[in-house]
Amino acid sequence: MRAVIAEDSVLLRVGLVKVLEAVGYEVAAAVGDAEALLGAVEEHRPQVVVADVRMPPGYSDEGVRAALVIRRQWPEVAVLLLSQFVEERYAADLLTSNTSGVGYLLKQRVANVDEFVDALQRVAEGGTALDPEVVAQLLVRRHRDPLERLTPRERDVLALMAEGRSNAAIAGALVVSDSAVAKHINSIFAKLDLPPADDSHRRVMAVLRFLEVA
Questions:
Q1: Are residues 9 and 97 in the same domain?
Q2: What CATH number is associated with residue 29?
Q3: Residue 178 and residue 152 in one domain
Q4: Per-residue pLDDT tens for 142-197?
Q5: By C-alpha distance, which of 147, 129, 12 is closest to 81?
Q6: In this structure, are residues 35 and 80 in contact, taking their beta carbons and an 8 Å threshold?
Q7: What is the CATH number of the domain that holds 149?
């Protein structure tokens, strides 16, 4: 699988290249700013992009804006954003543009190689990966309907869904059966007023409702 990396810190950029290559990715380009990122994506058409949120010249939201351009012009390219701090609106901005093949992680996750690679793989395969810190802050801040209808256990399940976890992974994290997770998810769909449809679509809509971007 071909990847492009955009990170202005040389040390982290080199580290990301080594991590990705070690698990079988072909790193087509590793650049240090948003303009170079867009050029690399146009040239190499990777399957996945790993990009810093803040890059030169302004160190504000250059990486996010580049990611939105990528998702608009090359929607088949998955994007995983890395950030130094929790900035919820960037996750929301990215999810609003497209609900598949997107991720948002804190840079500290890169230090846990297995966790980082697992998230990257989910994103590259068309799923989502939201940092647990982002999800935790959203849980503290969201107390309005329809999320008020959810039980504490259903909130736990929805939080893990927002991280991009599969039913089996949720069951393992909560130490419950797969069938129990399925029942909780169906209850979440009902309480969030999500009518019967493709389950993958409803999962995305539930997460968007959780993020308040739908």
A1: yes
A2: 3.40.50.2300
A3: yes
A4: 545 567 788 889 989 998 988 888 999 999 999 999 999 999 999 998 888 887 76
A5: 129
A6: no
A7: 1.10.10.10
Per-residue CA distances from 91 to 67, 102, 162, 202 (Å): 11, 9, 11, 19
> 130, 154, 187: which is the final residue of a domain?
130
pTM of the entire predicted model: 0.69
Phi and psi at 165, nearest 5°, equal: -80, 145
CA angle in degrees (0–180, nearest 5) for 27-161-174: 115
39-54 burial, b at 16+ Cβ within 10 Å, e below that, comes to ebbeebebbbbbbbbb
- Sign of the torsion angle spanned by Cα atoms 25, 26, 28, 29: positive
User: CA-CA distances (angstroms) from residue 131 to 55, 103, 140, 214?
Assistant: 20, 8, 15, 19
Distance CA 49, CA 203 (A): 24
Task: Please tell me whether residues 80 and 52 are part of one structural domain.
Answer: yes
Q: Please, are residues 208 and 99 in contact by the beta-carbon 8 Å criterion?
A: yes
Place of tokens 């309480």: 191
Tokens representing residue 24 in the block: 């079988």
Q: Which domain covers residue 196, as residue numbers?
A: 142-211
In this structure, the answer to whether residues 10 and 87 fall within a common structural domain is yes
Tokens of 129: 């990966």
Bridge partners of 49, per DSSP, are: 4, 79
Each residue's pLDDT tens digit, 104-156: 899 888 889 998 999 999 999 988 888 888 777 665 555 455 677 888 899 89
